[in-house]
Automatic annotation (TrEMBL), chains A, B:
It comes from Hydrobacter penzbergensis. Gene3D superfamilies: Nucleoside Triphosphate Pyrophosphohydrolase, Winged helix-like DNA-binding domain superfamily/Winged helix DNA-binding domain. PROSITE patterns: NUDIX (PS51462). It holds the Pfam family NUDIX. This is NUDIX domain-containing protein. It comes from the Bacteria. Residues 11-159 form the Nudix hydrolase domain.
Length: 247, 247
């Protein structure tokens, strides 16, 4: 906290929108901040000799326990009014640190947004030293967040929507085996709208990226649906041109 | 140069990839740097109270003379090894400035990449105070550039390719009236491959975003091709879902 000015690139932070899919819901990993009612995105600073991607990987590893994580830088947020100097000033006081007006934490910060796609079951949510809890929250239940974090989350979602045909989003978020309704729910959540079941299934099958397994998902009230897995080689090939076919 | 440390956000710059279309070629606006053989992307710094977008707009206005410019932030480049301290150190010497090791210009810089789409004929290329010339160069003739600017240019192109269905790229780059072969060349250049003439025409017409005019382009050796213009309302509507149709 005191040496940060010497260790980190000045005026630069990063924030991570970590998506996971569980119980047929798209979820985001959030931190409950100490001494406030706010929830926030996991984030951190960039060491002076560190790449942005290495810094994001480090933050994600610390919050999730996963080393090999799919992440993409998606936007920089640089509004001069975005920093919450009052929060940091109060926090420094609580820590007993006499903060000068030019303390490194009280300057303007721009933040680089990364989104990460993780397999829910692999994650061990772990709070950082500014937070008392680290929890998955259902996207639809997330309200306002600390500072401009809600805006960062919305921009991450918009990016997912645009990249749905160019990034292995389904592959990274779903477990190895999944049902067609699960895949459809994931698409519906990202796109923010209901899709027709038959059209969805036909279109998905037309891409040639799914393998229908012999197993079914047992235990539900309905007829047991078939399980699918991705044909990774064909998926990645299709993504090069865009799933809907290139020019 | 001396007061920059007080005026600008520390360790932060931006670089602009300015695209224009002329003579059936995609071109990029580059600066010929003073005292070196290097060409570079136009760029600048961000004032402490300025948004990133305002800073980019300011730089673009200064280099092109255009106020109302279409620009998009597309990536941050943050490799700790990307900065060319030697160049800046030499430049400061030439300007007769005694630069301490911690001079603001000699620190690590991360840079935010913006791409801009301009109508070629509206631009008045104008060098900045580090350059002796500002010129359009044909994309295919651009070799290495200063620092990591070639990498920034390549990433901008990759972004254009991915956003071809989601941003009004044709509308921003072409003049009000254009021929189908001109539109096709633009697409071919961005996609980096040849397209079939008939398929291209059929697909473009299927989007319902083009209006065929009664005029033709006269003067060529071949049969005079029809002129087209965009139906802006329909174009923007189609982009909301993606040109190839949404889900």
């Amino acid at each position: 906290m005191e040496k940060g000015g010497k260790l980190f690139h000045p005026g630069l932070s990063l924030d991570c929108v970590i998506f996971g899919f569980h119980d047929n819901q798209l979820k985001v990993l959030l931190l409950k901040m100490e001494h406030t009612d706010h929830w926030a995105l996991p984030g951190g600073f960039v060491y002076k000799d560190e790449t942005l991607e290495a810094a994001a990987t480090r933050v994600l590893q610390e919050r999730t326990g996963i080393n090999d994580i799919f992440l993409q830088q998606f936007h920089v947020f640089g509004d001069p009014a975005r920093s919450d100097r009052k929060y940091h000033s109060n926090r420094l006081k609580k820590l007993g640190i006499e903060a000068e007006k030019d303390h490194w934490l009280l300057n303007r910060f721009i933040t680089v947004g990364f989104y990460a796609l993780v397999e829910f079951s692999h994650v061990t949510p772990t709070p950082d030293n500014t937070s008392v809890a680290c929890e998955w929250q259902h996207l639809h239940n997330i309200g306002n967040l600390f500072m401009d974090h809600r805006q960062i989350l919305d921009k991450a979602l918009e990016t997912l929507r645009q990249q749905l045909n160019y990034q292995p989003i389904g592959y990274k978020l779903l477990p190895d085996k999944f049902t067609m309704p699960e895949l459809q729910t994931l698409y519906e959540t990202i796109l923010g709208k209901k899709l027709d079941r038959r059209n969805f299934q036909r279109r998905m099958n037309s891409y040639g990226i799914l393998r229908r397994l012999k197993e079914t998902r047992k235990g539900g009230a309905h007829k047991a649906p078939y399980l699918y897995s991705f044909n990774l080689r064909k998926y990645q090939q299709a993504l090069l041109e865009g799933l809907q076919g290139g020019w």
